[in-house]
What does this fold into?
Amino acid sequence: MVTFNPPAVSQPVSDDPDIVRNVCAGRPVTDAFFTQLAERDLLAPGGQVYFVASNTADLRGIIGHAVEEGFTAHVHHLHDWNDGVLTYLFRLTRENVK
It folds into this structure.
């Protein structure tokens, strides 16, 4: 099992450069994560990736890239903060592609 809670926020949340650097990396970090998992065949047969992201990130792009890399995504849990932010816990699996 792999867990990943990336700094994938793509919307500005602060003017403080330290905050922006730590939480606003956006999609490049998640694209690299899923690409490396797939290219290096790092997920064991039957393995799962648990991935956390909110609707402040480019969810369509992130999950779309994971699917392009051979992953199947399921929403394992959804939390509504009642302020417009939805946080998703995705469970992703991948059939071994040789």
In short: Helices lie at 17-23, 27-39, 59-68. The chain has one domain: 2-94.
